[in-house]
Amino acid sequence: MEEVVIVGGGIAGLATAVALKKVGVRALILERSTELRAIGAALGLFPNAWVALDALGVSDKLAALYAPSDKGYVTNVQTKSIQEVRYASNDRDGAPPRTIHRKVLLEALAEELSPNTIRFSSKITSVETQVEQGSPICMVTLDDGTVIKSKAVIGCDGLHSIVARWLGLRPPVCTGRSVVRGLSLFPEGHRLEPGVIQQFVDVGKRAGFIALNDKELYWFCVVMGSPKEKLDPEMIQREVSENLAKDFPPVYIDVVEHSDLSSVTWGPLMFRYPWDVLFGNLARSNITVAGDAMHPMTPDMGQGGCAALEDAVVLGRHLGDAISKRGGELVARDIGFAIQKYVKERRLRATALIAASYLSGWLQQGGSSRLMRFLRDVVFYRLLITRLFNATRYDCGKLPSVSSLPSSGSKSSI
């Protein structure tokens, strides 16, 4: 009998395990891969993410590694016009945005966990519930036939979540766009200012890069449609530099051509319809979802990973509150109530972020007509972007202190 089983060892899964550990709940992470995966190379962390990371106890060591992003520039490839976009935050807003290595974030979270918390090469095939002694018990079956019982299951298993499917959530849909991502390495230094986001917009395309440190840059290219065939990283790099971004400034082409090919990926952009999150079944009994398993969204506001970190803290907070009322016990009968509170708190927030991210992408990449240029260059970059950025100034709260718990974790109680 495990306390809590977390399916998936990505950002949401690791962060949720850290949050639960801090409130005295022992979690087991089942990760299907053989090691921590960092698909996507890097990600932006906005003020809301730093609030969550502070609650998880890892914000300081991550912030010290990366320069804050207080501004960016957007170049219209057709007209050559350049707009400056400000992302600065003050003390009231919290920590400023930073773009960091995805793998560094995963490793920082994993370092907070106890040994043997993550069980790699563990692919689940089904989730079920049954009642024992009047309390719900969850059962996770692995592809080797192993059955693991627990008091709760948290699905953090991404876009194609088995747990979300068991809950009855409809699968994510493709937006009709795709994104190429990669890391570039300049051994002698690139001489570009760290933390400054450079973006380029063209007809149906949006690309950009940002320096992570004095030798590495993260770059992306969002285009309409998806790759017609599976391409290896070298072919993807050539497709971007010679075709998709051939009209872009030489500085962008140079960044792409310095790519670490092991980091280059190309995949479709998918999201869950906002109304599926607003009205869908996000929990049943003692089972729920977090991260992309709950709210897959486009990356146009950089909120996928940030929202996953929020989920972890909110879920940990509600379960911690339930434990505090029991004097340090994790009681299966109380978990369902705590999960319902978590779902109620996250439903509207996740719905709004999905819709705002989709709108942001549509406005920035909607075409080259006079109307779309006006909506993008005037309405979005001069008026809306500040309002949308306000959504990142969100406080997910702090984790409760459960001083009565023994160091090995909470007591087991049905």
Question: Element order, helices and strands?
Answer: EHEEHHEEEHEEEEHEEEEHHEHEEHEHHE
How many discrete domains?
Answer: 2
Return residue spans where pLDDT drops below 50 for at least 5 consecutive residues.
404-414
Broad structural category: alpha/beta
Global outline: globular
The CATH class of the largest domain turns out to be Alpha Beta
Strand content is: 25-35%
- The DSSP helix count reads 11
**CATH domain fold name of the largest domain:** FAD/NAD(P)-binding domain
Describe what you observe in this structure.
With 414 residues, the chain is of the alpha/beta class. It folds into two domains: 2-39 and 102-172 and 272-368 and 397-413, FAD/NAD(P)-binding domain (3-Layer(bba) Sandwich); 175-270, D-Amino Acid Oxidase, Chain A, domain 2. The protein is built from eleven helices and 19 strands. The chain has helices at 11-22, 47-56, 59-63, 102-110, 162-167, 233-244, 250-257, 274-279, 304-325, 332-364, 370-389, and strands at residues 2-7, 27-30, 42-45, 71-76, 82-86, 98-101, 118-119, 124-132, 135-142, 147-155, 173-185, 197-202, 205-211, 216-224, 265-271, 283-284, 287-289, 329-331, 411-413. Strands 1, 2, 7, 8, 9, 10, 16 and 17 form an eight-stranded mixed sheet that branches. A hairpin with a 4-residue loop joins strand 9 and strand 10. Helix 1 (11-22) packs parallel to helix 4 and helix 10 (332-364) packs antiparallel against helix 11. The protein is globular. The termini are close together. Residues 3-355 form the FAD-binding domain. InterPro entries: FAD-bd (IPR002938), FAD/NAD-bd_sf (IPR036188), MOase (IPR044560). GO terms for molecular function: FAD binding; monooxygenase activity.
